[in-house]
Amino acid sequence: MNQNPSRVAIALAVVAAALGFFVDAYDLLLYSIVRNQSLASLGVAGNALLSTGIDLLNAQLLGMLAGGIAWGIIGDIWGRRRVLFGSIILYSAATVANGMVNGVAAYGACRFAAGLGLAGELGAGVTLVSELMSKRSRGWGTMLVAAIGVLGVVSASLVGDLFAWRTAYFIGGGLGFMLLLLRLGVRESALFAQVKSQNVARGNFLAFFTNAKRLRRYACVILLAMPIWYAIGILITFSPEIGAALGLSPAPLAGRTVLLYYAGLSLGDLTNGYLSQVFKTRNKVILAFMIITAVSCAAYFLCGGASLPVFYGLCGFIGWACGYWALFVTISAEQFGTNLRATAAITAPNFVRGLTALLTIAFKGLRPGIGTLPSAILIGAVIVIIAFIALAQIEETYGKDLDYTEAV
């Protein structure tokens, strides 16, 4: 078996992963842009816009959590390529259906199904790229995934502003079906094919919980990325409410803050990928950007009320500081053997997203008692501290040989 894939095979895998990140960013950004518009057209008004918006976001995040487990297991048992096909079919169908809903319950069901489908995209793509590229160069692949993925942010912003919300969802579903066709030439990972021929247990999700060292490794990887989704799930998604609490009038526009955050996030992914290759370290780069994340979140609360331009600028800066997302997914793949790698790389980012539901529920519960700003600050402080502790427990994986299996 050819263990050295051609440049064409590598390029197709990188494009497949990048476009998976594209639809990932498009979908999440689009919901934040059309949240109030779509809910208002369905008869939701007043204070219910915020609470219903949180519920629908949680439905999507929980779909990603469930989908992450399912696609992760499929990726290690039947292959990374099958995940890339199956996940985009489900996402595309659910997103088209999303444009046809006539009630909140149906809206929530479609967001759950879209999350379920979207869950396999980034993790499976990064796993495939990591296994096809050499141990010294796979970080460049991650950087290219982020560079192409930024177009999803731009596209969602343009589509959300130019079209009605139903049409915007139809376009998202159409993009997914187009991506499906582009993936026909993607080849399977040789490392997976090699392990598949061996008598090795694959895709055993429970294996993460039956070994103390493996469980700690897995939990720390997940907790490492929680500040990113604290920023997305609370500071950015609910920026109109937080901006108003900071004294801004008029309140910030959700679509603009989300666009600036994701644009910054994508640039941050590029920065992290480049620095990790230049300095030959994943952990030190992430540490530096986690420190910048903590500082930028503090500035958001301390200085964000000065003016709308300052607030918007800080949203973009927080996004750049949180731009270790693609590097985090790469680390998730590099931490585990081939027989559990897809399960880890797919479930980890989706557990991060799913756990964000707990943060938004806490925000929703604390807000009436202690206020909007204290609630957001308290949750953020706890999350950032936990993330620093988790990073200290994680092995450096730059240049790590991925040709090994886990004893399950």
Helix-strand blueprint:
Blueprint: H1 7-41, H2 48-77, H3 80-98, H4 104-118, H5 121-132, H6 138-162, H7 165-182, H8 190-196, H9 212-224, H10 226-236, H11 239-245, H12 254-278, H13 283-303, H14 308-321, H15 325-334, H16 338-370, H17 372-391
Helix pairs in contact: 1-2, 1-5, 1-6, 1-7, 1-12, 2-3, 2-4, 2-16, 3-4, 3-5, 3-7, 5-6, 5-15, 5-16, 6-12, 9-16, 9-17, 10-16, 10-17, 12-14, 13-14, 13-17, 15-16, 16-17
The CATH superfamily appears as MFS general substrate transporter like domains
Shape: globular
Reported CATH architecture: Up-down Bundle
Helix fraction bin:
over 70%
SS summary, helix count: 17
Low-confidence stretches: none
CATH topology: Growth Hormone, Chain: A
| SSE order, one letter for each helix or strand | HHHHHHHHHHHHHHHHH
* Quantity of strands, as a count: 0
Describe the structure in your own words.
The protein has 408 residues and is mainly alpha-helical. The chain has a single domain (7-196, 204-391), classed as Growth Hormone, Chain: A. The protein is built from 17 helices and no strands. The chain has helices at 7-41, 48-77, 80-98, 104-118, 121-132, 138-162, 165-182, 190-196, 212-224, 226-236, 239-245, 254-278, 283-303, 308-321, 325-334, 338-370, 372-391. Helix 3 runs antiparallel to helix 4 (104-118), helix 3 (80-98) packs antiparallel against helix 5 and helix 13 (283-303) runs antiparallel to helix 17. The longest helix has 35 residues, at 7-41. It starts with 6 loop residues before the first helix and ends in a 17-residue tail after the last helix.
